[in-house]
Specification:
The chain is mainly α and 132 residues long. It is built from 7 helices and no strands. The longest helix is centred in the last third of the chain and has 37 residues.
Length: 132
């Protein structure tokens, strides 16, 4: 497989390895090893990655090019229905306003990641302080 599916999915959401690691309960180093095919992915982590990105484990492993089975597609459709009015409003914007909105979304995602990483570091520091 030319491109690692976990890396592909993570980058499609502009997510850092550290953020993904926090979301699936592992380390940044483990995510890096998974993305570089340096070791076999433990089944519990594979399932968490699959659920996080709403894709099948077969897709992540490169066994299938189909991202979602029927249930996954159904869940995705339900989520898309919730956002349908936003999509319509986006489509009515000029190209420059669409680009501006995408920029704003990227900045909001970046700010959220920074906030999550800060709170994770604070939790780690508090845990270290309580062990002393």
């Amino acid at each position: 497989m030319a491109e690692n599916r976990i890396r592909e999915l993570r980058k499609s959401l502009n997510m850092s390895q550290e953020t993904l690691a926090n979301k699936i309960g592992t380390t940044q180093q483990a995510v890096s090893r998974m993305e570089n095919n340096a070791y076999d992915i433990p089944s519990d982590i594979l399932i968490k990655v699959s659920k996080h990105f709403n894709v099948t484990t077969d897709y992540i492993l490169g066994i299938s090019d189909t991202k979602r089975d029927y249930n996954g597609q159904y869940r995705m459709n339900q989520e898309m229905d919730k956002c349908y009015d936003i999509v319509l409003r986006y489509q009515n914007l000029s190209k420059i306003n669409q680009k501006t909105l995408r920029f704003i979304l990227e900045r909001l995602e970046q700010a959220q990641r920074e906030c999550e990483e800060t709170s994770t570091k604070e939790v780690d520091k508090n845990a270290e302080d309580s062990n002393m």
